[in-house]
Write a structure and sequence with these properties.
Number of domains of chain A: 4
Order of helices and strands of chain A: HHHHHHHHHHEEEHEHHEEHHHHH
Strand content of chain B: 5-15%
Strand order of the largest sheet of chain A: 1-2-3
Number of helices of chain A: 18
Number of strands of chain A: 6
Distance between the termini of chain A: 39 Å
Structural class of chain B: mainly alpha
Order of helices and strands of chain B: HHHHEEEHHHHHHHHHHHHHHEEH
Distance between the termini of chain B: 9 Å
Radius of gyration of chain B: 35 Å
Largest interface: A-B, 55 and 58 residues
Shape of chain B: elongated
Helix content of chain B: 55-70%
Number of helices of chain B: 19
Oligomer: heterodimer
Structural class of chain A: mainly alpha
Strand order of the largest sheet of chain B: 1-2-3
Radius of gyration of chain A: 37 Å
Shape of chain A: elongated
């Protein structure tokens, strides 16, 4: 019967924790194992490793030849889950913040994930990949397979692993998997974008302190690419040279784009703008009075007799101009001499609303199709690209955090199970026996060790002398042994 | 008594002894930590220190007396007395000191806000909930006045401070004014802190008349550029904001009192500084030329004539690529004074030509925008100066021209205005705007207007925040410690008394137990 209980207690310890973790993470593992394989198993792997450690120590501590009492063995066994699982909980709090900050370039904080929001984060990360694939298909750097439309192609790429070789990219010399494409695009937006801006302006822009001087600095300041931000120098995505002192100077960090002229995927140098980093439209209102002011202004130029006809003529012309101006401005901004990067201008003359649309948004890709000279970029904004690039690691962190709180509960629960296991192993009976042994050893002492009321030293403080302590312990043991062996009869000769 | 019973009793008293001990200082500390946490003081506040010191003192006495005597009675009495003295003594000393401290704070507020002379006398009296200051001027022609200060009296603080009822509300009321200051100006600092942590580059700043720049606006540490200005990334803290704004307000008041305008005086001072031999000599120094000379480092961060030419050229050709715009220029160009060929070769010179053709008075326009224009300047010079002004980058190693302003008051005013208007505008923490009607302060960004100028703090509010800051950091945690000390003085003493009594009983039953085992 005891064995049955012991098996039950063991089953209720680590296996239950592992089962619970598996149950909590199952959905994410099912969805994302194809993309991030073992990273998604971290949450399960940690308790499994903890279990292995536990049983190795358990077997060593409780081996038959052990000289430790069963009580002592049980205490040690109970300590292991508390130390390992509790330690894991503490370690998560101590070290994960730095790991998360590194992995996401300081865009996600531990507090954002630690409590119950890890599940939402997993959802966000899953949608990042889906969005990236959708935009890449739209921008044609993930080719639409024959017989499929864009929507089907998107679903097709979303259904395969990020590490799967894509048959349509067989001839491509730069990338063959979605993951390799993500690496190219991220390197470009990071090294040639975010990291190339001068301090502190990009931090202000992404930290809700984007002022006009800040924007001007981001647009006008000289930018440099740090070789440390490049993963691999000897790759077709980077061109560089060495200066006179032998320092590496990065010339260009290339981005994968679709070339409308050659109908193929190519690499292109690109100057990212701050709008690309933010990934959202900047909207301004120029006021709805623009048209009226123009009519008045134009009307004032000519004599009254001709005014009406002239204004009509000019307004007709203006309508044409207004319709074509956004594209003109877009091309103007994309000019090498201005920004050298596409920022689409969306302008509504009647309402006076002007929007600057970054090229790395869905709207940007759609707008890029209006002219052969423009290229939409399949990249998410900087923050999202940084997350996407470290998605595997982020998943590992998310999986670990998903079980972090359970570790602390499980540590106490498992300790309790092991205490019960200790009882089943005869922890207390064993202890009573040891005390009895101790009593018999004490009884073999010479007569001088007999105490009467007078000879007992008076302990007058909490801090007992060594001798008193020894004596007290011995007497306590004796009394407990007597108690457990069924009490004392007056006739018993103790000594 | 049989051994079993004696053992049970011994264990019972052992448990009671431990429980009694835990009901003393450990429980007090636990409850205090909980309150301190709820009030936002954190667990390492001075309140915690007070309790730990008192506990340590009592423990030290306990050990000391134990070494001297084994008598339970002696040990109990000494520990109980020390506990009561430590806790009640602290409360009494705090009551006396805190009252004096509040009076000092009220006095310093009065001196700060009313800018009193050293010889002026301030007497503080508490009336109901407020502290009032009676000012007796050294100048006997001025009549003495009694004013109300924003500092609450100690009794009012005591009646308000109820840590175990509505604690979080209390922490809000302690710092509500400071919280509003932080949000209005979009500056750094939490409710209880006033330190800035955004300094990006550490540097040894130059002194002016032997004074370090940190003396001016109250910030120490590595937050300065080598030229003595705050680093580019620096976002003001509470103290700096108060100091900068008070400098502006008071300089303006000072000039107003003389019937002058501080800003006009400052403009004249700038003109004088920028034409002074010192400034002109400095402009010839290597330090300056490296930054603003040909190919200087400043042009990595600002618009240059070449860059403007490049942009204009792109603009001209870009516009002409649009058929409709080209048609419009052909049609209206004559009236507007612009031809297609102008646009084809658009450059700064061409723009100057067009402007001159229209006969626009650029010099007066530029003057209105705060650009100093001299008679010998051409339209091109004025335009270039305008371009530089609006894209100007203050190189961290180069002294600003205001450094050369001779009048100390105006120079400090110039720095304060530069920080409040320019630095603040760059970093979305505008402290001051001259346009008091329609201007904005605080977090003025591309997507946010910040706060209206009317929500700016008055000098009185600024002085109040500063005065409260001088004591709130220690005062309120100490108030908390005082509350607990007063309540727990008797309780802790009782807990010690019981702990010793139970220890004694435990000991006695130990003796009985031993006796019963060997004599049964």
């Amino acid at each position: 019967m005891k064995t049955v209980f012991r098996v039950l207690f063991h089953l209720l310890s680590y296996p239950v924790l592992i089962a619970l973790v598996l149950w909590a993470d199952l959905e994410i593992i099912k969805d994302q194992y194809k993309n991030y394989s073992y990273f998604t198993l971290i949450g399960v792997a940690v308790p499994v490793v903890m279990m292995l450690i536990f049983y190795v120590v358990y077997l060593i501590v409780t081996r038959k030849k052990s000289k430790k009492s069963k009580l002592c063995q049980t205490v040690i066994v109970c300590m292991i889950p508390i130390l390992t699982l509790g330690g894991m909980w503490v370690a998560c709090d101590r070290y994960l913040p730095d790991v998360i900050s590194d992995a996401t370039s300081g865009t996600i904080y531990y507090e954002d994930l630690a409590e119950n929001s890890w599940k939402e984060r997993a959802d966000v990360n899953a949608s990042l990949l889906n969005d990236f694939i959708k935009m890449s298909v739209m921008a044609k750097i993930l080719p639409t397979p024959d017989g499929m439309d864009e929507k089907e192609a998107t679903e097709y790429y979303q259904s395969i692993s990020v590490d799967a070789e894509i048959p349509e990219l067989e001839d491509n010399e730069y990338y063959h998997t979605i993951n390799e494409l993500i690496a190219i695009q991220y390197q470009s937006i990071n090294a040639n974008g975010y990291a190339s801006f001068s301090d502190p302006w990009i931090g202000f822009a992404t930290g809700s302190r984007m002022t006009i001087p800040c924007l001007l600095h981001l647009l006008l300041d000289k930018r440099t690419v740090d070789p440390d931000d490049i993963d691999k120098l000897d790759s077709p995505t980077v061109t560089y040279h060495e200066d006179e002192e032998g320092n590496i100077v990065i010339d260009e960090v290339l981005l994968a784009v679709y070339d409308e002229n050659t109908y193929g995927i190519t690499l292109k140098p690109l100057s990212w703008t701050v709008l690309d980093m933010l990934g959202e439209n900047q909207e301004f209102s120029l006021g709805s009075g623009l048209k009226g002011a123009l009519v008045d202004g134009v009307g004032g130029m000519v004599e009254e007799d001709y005014r009406e006809d002239f204004t009509e003529l000019v307004l007709g012309l203006v309508d044409d101009i207004v319709e074509s101006v956004p594209m003109t401005l877009t091309l103007l901004v994309a000019d090498e001499r201005v920004l050298g990067s596409e920022v689409y201008v969306d302008f509504d003359f009647d309402s006076g609303n002007l929007a600057l649309v970054p090229a790395d948004t869905e709207q940007g890709i759609v707008m890029s199709r209006q002219s052969k000279e423009l290229q939409g970029r399949a990249a998410l904004d900087y923050m999202k690209m940084a997350w996407l690039n470290s998605n595997g690691l982020l998943y590992a962190i998310v999986m670990l955090l998903s079980v972090r709180t359970w570790f602390i509960y499980a540590s106490a629960w498992i300790a309790l199970m092991m205490l019960l296991d200790g009882c089943m192993r005869g922890m207390f009976a064993d202890e009573a026996k040891r005390k009895a042994d101790l009593y018999f050893q004490a009884s073999k002492q010479p007569k001088a060790r007999r105490y009467n009321k007078k000879s007992v030293p008076v302990a007058t403080n909490f801090m007992e002398t060594k001798e008193q302590k020894k004596l007290n312990n011995m007497q306590d043991a004796l009394v407990r042994a007597i108690k457990e062996s069924g009490g004392l009869n007056k006739s018993d000769d103790l000594i | 008594m049989d051994a079993k019973k004696a053992l049970r009793r011994q264990n019972l008293f052992r448990t009671l002894k431990t429980v009694s001990y835990l009901l003393g200082y450990p429980l007090m500390l636990l409850l205090l930590l909980q309150s301190a946490y709820a009030l936002g003081f954190g667990t390492k506040s001075i309140a915690t220190e007070v309790v730990i010191i008192a506990w340590a003192a009592v423990t030290a006495v306990q050990i000391l007396v134990t070494i001297i005597t084994k008598s339970y009675a002696a040990r109990t009495i000494s520990v109980v007395i020390v506990t009561v003295i430590a806790l009640l003594g602290f409360s009494i000393v705090f009551d006396i000191k805190a009252e004096a401290k509040l009076n000092d704070v009220a006095e310093s507020f009065t001196r700060d806000y009313y800018q009193l002379e050293k010889g002026d006398k301030v007497t503080i009296t508490a009336k109901e909930d407020k502290l009032y200051a009676e000012i007796k001027y050294a100048d006997e022609s001025k009549e003495s006045v009694t004013v109300e200060t924003p500092i609450k009296s100690y009794n009012e603080h005591l009646s308000e401070f109820k840590p175990w009822s509505g604690g979080s509300g209390l922490s809000g009321s302690i710092n509500s004014l400071q919280g509003r200051l932080i949000s209005t100006y979009n500056i750094k600092g939490t409710g209880s802190g006033n330190k800035n942590t955004d300094g990006s580059r550490g540097a040894e700043a130059p002194s002016i008349d032997g004074k370090d720049p940190e003396i001016w606006f109250g910030e120490t540490g590595d937050v300065y550029n080598p030229n003595g200005l705050y680093a580019d990334a620096y976002i003001f803290g509470v103290e700096q904001t108060i100091q900068i704004l008070l400098t502006i307000y008071r300089t303006q008041e000072e000039y107003e009192a003389k019937g002058l305008d501080a800003d006009e005086a400052l403009a004249a001072a700038y003109l004088e500084a920028e034409t002074s031999p010192e400034w002109l000599a400095y402009k010839n120094s290597k330090e300056y030329k490296d930054a603003y000379g040909p190919n200087g480092t400043a042009y990595n961060y600002m618009l240059t004539e070449e860059r403007v030419d490049e942009l204009l050229s792109a603009l001209g050709t870009g516009l002409l690529r649009n058929k409709y715009i080209k048609d419009a220029i052909s049609l209206l160009g004559g009236t507007l004074g612009i031809s297609v060929s102008d646009l084809e070769n658009l450059s700064l010179d061409k723009v100057v030509e067009i402007i001159d053709g229209f006969g626009v008075d650029v010099a007066s326009l530029a003057g209105g925008m705060g650009v100093i224009v001299t008679d010998d300047m051409t339209t091109r010079d004025v335009l270039v100066k305008l371009i530089y002004k609006f894209s100007y980058y203050q190189v961290p190693t180069v002294l600003p021209s205001m450094y050369f302003i001779k009048d100390e008051t105006l120079r400090t005013y110039a720095y304060a205005k530069y920080y409040a208007e320019v630095h603040g505008y760059n970093n979305a923490c505008v402290l001051y705007t001259e346009d008091q009607e329609n201007g904005h302060i605080g977090g003025v960004t591309m997507s946010d207007d910040g706060e209206p100028a009317s929500s700016a703090f008055t000098a009185e509010e600024l002085c109040t925040v500063r005065a409260i800051n001088t004591y709130s950091g220690r005062f309120f945690p100490l108030m908390l410690a005082r509350r607990y000390a007063m309540f727990f003085a008797a309780f802790t003493a009782l807990a010690y008394l019981l702990a010793f009594f139970f220890a004694y009983k435990q000991h006695m039953y130990g003796l009985i137990l031993k006796d019963s085992i060997y004599h049964e």
